[in-house]
């Protein structure tokens, strides 16, 4: 397999696209539970957020954390795999309110922006399962799973450790859908289609009695907004004009265009998602959404 993060020549770029397109079609079925909640972007920061990232933030913003706390029978202790700057520590603390228990981040480096309020583990995402203790009940990852070569193995190891703890749990992995191949170009090992997610689900369910579902995020309008105003100008300015410091977020009125595109597709549908939320949980644990109850 070719890792899109380390490609250095044109031949491998072509092979990477072929590899991804082939992988999108892998699997024999689309038989996986698909949930379609209505999300909320109220009170979210929108500047410098791509449509995909704004949809992901909207998803986290829309979860009924209090209900989840009741189901898990304890405060929510988050373990963020591939945490980067740790921004989701503060976001999840804000979104979950009184249900927040703790936040732990793991990445191969520790960002200078990572808050001293939270603990950090400096290690590879593949080793995350080694650090899951009896207190952790909420595994998250944001655009990390596609950077793990053996993603299914990692998911099995994480799930195995959580089940071993004999406590209810939930995992939510935010991952790029097929269309992100054209938006982010060479990025990670793969993108995820409903077919290959169904295959991953089948493999996990062969070993564990768990709930698995997916939530599609975004659609065609958000895709074209990203392609037109981010992907194409970013490539042109940085790769053709060699303006390495050029920032897409500084384009006039772009923030408004992105917000309008996201608002038009805020009710999740399975037509042409940009991202997926991939959920694995103990039997009986079910995500409820605040906006769905209004």
Question: Spatial order of the strands in the main sheet?
Answer: 1-7-8-6-5-2-3-4
Specify Rg, calculated over alpha carbons.
Answer: 19 Å
DSSP strand count: 8
Helicity level: 25-40%
What's the SSE pattern?
HEHHEHEEEHEHHEHHE
**Overall morphology:** globular
User: What is the CA-CA span between the terminal residues?
Assistant: 46 Å
Superfamily (CATH H level) name: Vaccinia Virus protein VP39
**SS-based structural class?**
alpha/beta
What's the overall average pLDDT, rounded?
95
How many structural domains can be distinguished in the coordinates?
1
**Number of helical elements:** 9
Walkthrough of the structure:
By secondary structure, the chain is α/β, with parallel strands linked by helices. It has one domain: Rossmann fold (3-Layer(aba) Sandwich). It has an eight-stranded mixed sheet, sandwiched between helices. α4 links the parallel β2 and β3. The mean pLDDT is 95.
Could you name the key traits of this structure?
294 residues; alpha/beta; 8 strands; globular
Provide a compact summary of the structure:
This protein is about 35% helix and about 15% strand.
Walk me through the topology.
Layout: H1 10-24, E1 33-34, H2 51-62, H3 65-72, E2 76-81, H4 87-96, E3 100-107, E4 119-122, E5 138-142, H5 151-164, E6 170-176, H6 180-184, H7 194-207, E7 210-217, H8 220-240, H9 254-264, E8 275-282
